[in-house]
Amino acid sequence: MSDTGGTETKELTTAEADDDEDGADSHSEASKVSSASAPYSTSERSHNSTKSLTESILTYSSENGRHYCNETYFMPNDDTEQTRLNILHQVYLMLLDGELTTAPLPRRIQRVLDVGTGPGDWAITMGEKYCGAEVIATDISVFQPTDVPRNVLFQIDDATEEWTFTQPFDFIHLRNLSGAFSDWGSIYMEAYKHLKPGGYLEIAEFEDIQMPKSSPNSYVSIFAAAVQAAAEKAGTPVGTGHLKRSLLEGAGFRNVRTTILDVPIGTWPKDTKKQSIGKMWLIGVLEGLEATSLRLLTREMNWNAQDVRELCDKVKAELVGPKIEAKTPFHFVVARKPFIAL
């Protein structure tokens, strides 16, 4: 869990401050799927972007009862995961009172990039709100978006490779990509390069579960430590360490600002709004335990799948137990590309 330095944390209220520098294989069966049968649509309008779906061959892995987009990324991309991400999107909307970002975007923007879009909920909603903007949503995986606005374009792309967009963006958005990259500095440099002067980057992430009244030997603590150790061994750390101000400023960004909102897990708060978001987030957390841990622990720590699922069940029982006041801090970090390069 990262040290957020002087950033003040409040429950479901905005706390903005400069971010402190120190803060914020199991057996597998692969099958080839041609992008010609992929659910995303492509368009001639995407010529200013990188790879379209018709240029890709996608490899899927079935492992321990879950489906993954390739042989390396630890998060699944099956229907269960899509549902979890749909729930998570609703949590974000409730948390931000219906807003899609904490960045001070102007009313008129032309181009938006959503990196690691998943099912595309954020990109689709963004396209509906900014109907005059082109919203490009990229990921290494394929889900099933429906009712997509004409100004929203989905593309298969690997953000760890050189970005080849030919037109810059007003806003670049990354959300819930902890553990996706080994070198966040290079991700930020690519984002900086592909932003217009004065454009904004936002990274949204949440921390591990916090249970102030629990013991250090709680199943929640054991789970978090195991996942962190496995991710470190894999070379793609989880957590919020990639939100450090120094990483963003090293890529050229300025005006780095952090907002941290505490989200309850469950209905323990007295406030009705917090109860509503806590109920939804509890579902998201319970569904995310196996998704987060299964591939990491079986591959990196040589656990068997049954042991991983048993630990997940124990964490679930702990979280829904009586007098458990668990919460999760959500981080929103916004940085700006200067109008004049420094």
Q: Unreliable runs, pLDDT <50, ≥5 residues?
A: 1-57
Q: Helical stretch count?
A: 7
Structure classification:
alpha/beta
What summary fits the major beta sheet? 9 strands, mixed
* Total strand segments: 12
- Rg on CA atoms, Å: 20 Å
Shape: globular
Q: What is the multimeric organization of the chains shown?
A: single chain
Helix content: 25-40%
Mean pLDDT: 86
Give a written overview of the molecule.
By secondary structure, the protein is an alpha/beta fold. About 30% of the residues lie in helices and about 25% in strands. The chain contains 7 helices and 12 strands. The strands form 2 sheets. Strands 1, 2, 6, 7, 8, 9, 10, 11 and 12 form a 9-stranded mixed sheet that branches. A 3-stranded antiparallel sheet has the order 3-4-5, with no helix packed on it. Helix 6 runs antiparallel to helix 7 (about 305-320). It is globular and about 50 Å long. It starts with 9 loop residues before the first strand and ends in a 6-residue tail after the last strand.
Describe this structure in a few short sentences:
The chain has 342 residues and is of the alpha/beta class.
Descriptive terms for the model:
3-stranded antiparallel β-sheet; 342 residues; disordered N terminus; 12 strands; alpha/beta
Outline the fold blueprint.
Blueprint: E1 10-11, E2 16-18, E3 29-34, E4 57-63, E5 66-68, H1 79-95, E6 111-115, H2 121-129, E7 134-139, E8 152-156, E9 169-175, H3 184-193, E10 195-206, H4 219-234, H5 245-250, E11 254-265, H6 272-300, H7 305-319, E12 326-336
